[in-house]
């Protein structure tokens, strides 16, 4: 029997390289900026995430787009709200992409026990930049190669940022297992015109 795959279940297994097109940075914002930002989330129009009658156990507030009943992204042209503007400046600097290229913003609230299942962010999303707030999560990635999954993961710390572009967005799926404590993410998406 080939015991090799078991090695990857061991805690000391060698770290999988992160996918091409994925980048991560700690401390995009300070603890004070994080606190002020989350305090202002009170004013956002959160609603439960729902798709085709399935409730994701998360609450979301989205700007610049909405999902139609087929799950397709419909652009609304609505601007990204002022409360997210300073964060978007930092995200744009982190990604090296133009601030105005980010036309979608989504604030997601994960109560303890909430997560997000395996998916890819579909077009028209091109690049996705996400900022984690309040508590860490295990950000997992996987890609099917033949009959097996290649896997990678990273602990996304509060106040950190990640970028998914290129193959990390188009070829890899991502998911977040149930979080232990309240976590918010702010994701900004560039879109194909
Ligand atoms: O919460 C996150 O950082 C990721 C959320 C996500 O994958 C999505 O909204 O498509
Ligand atoms: Fe996603």
From TrEMBL:
Keyword annotations:
Dioxygenase, Oxidoreductase
Keyword check for Oxidoreductase:
yes
Which residues are in the Fe2OG dioxygenase domain? 101-192
* One example GO MF annotation: dioxygenase activity
Question: Is Oxidoreductase included in the keywords of this UniProt record?
Answer: yes
> Which PROSITE patterns would you find in this protein's record?
FE2OG_OXY
Q: Which InterPro entries match?
A: AlkB-like, AlkB-like_sf, ALKBH4, Oxoglu/Fe-dep_dioxygenase_dom
Q: Name one Pfam family in it.
A: 2OG-FeII_Oxy_2
Name of the molecule in the record:
Alkylated DNA repair dioxygenase AlkB
Give the species this sequence originates from.
Answer: Caulobacter rhizosphaerae
């Amino acid at each position: 029997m080939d015991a090799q795959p078991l090695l990857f279940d061991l805690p000391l297994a060698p770290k999988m390289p992160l996918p091409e097109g994925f980048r991560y940075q700690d401390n995009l914002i300070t603890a004070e900026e994080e606190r002020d930002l989350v305090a202002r989330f009170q004013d956002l129009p959160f609603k439960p995430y729902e798709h085709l009658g399935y409730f994701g156990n998360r609450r979301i507030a989205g700007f610049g787009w909405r999902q139609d009943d087929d799950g397709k992204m419909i652009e609304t042209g609505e601007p990204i709200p002022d409360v997210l503007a300073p964060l978007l400046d930092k995200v744009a600097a982190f990604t090296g992409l133009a601030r105005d290229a980010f036309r979608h913003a989504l604030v997601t609230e994960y109560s303890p026990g909430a997560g997000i299942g395996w998916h890819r962010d579909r077009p028209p999303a091109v690049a996705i930049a996400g900022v984690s707030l309040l508590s860490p999560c295990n950000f997992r990635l996987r890609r099917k190669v033949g009959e097996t999954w290649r896997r990678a993961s990273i602990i996304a710390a509060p106040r950190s940022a990640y970028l998914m572009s290129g193959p990390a967005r188009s070829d890899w799926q991502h998911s977040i297992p149930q979080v232990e404590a309240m976590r918010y993410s702010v994701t900004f998406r560039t879109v194909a015109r």
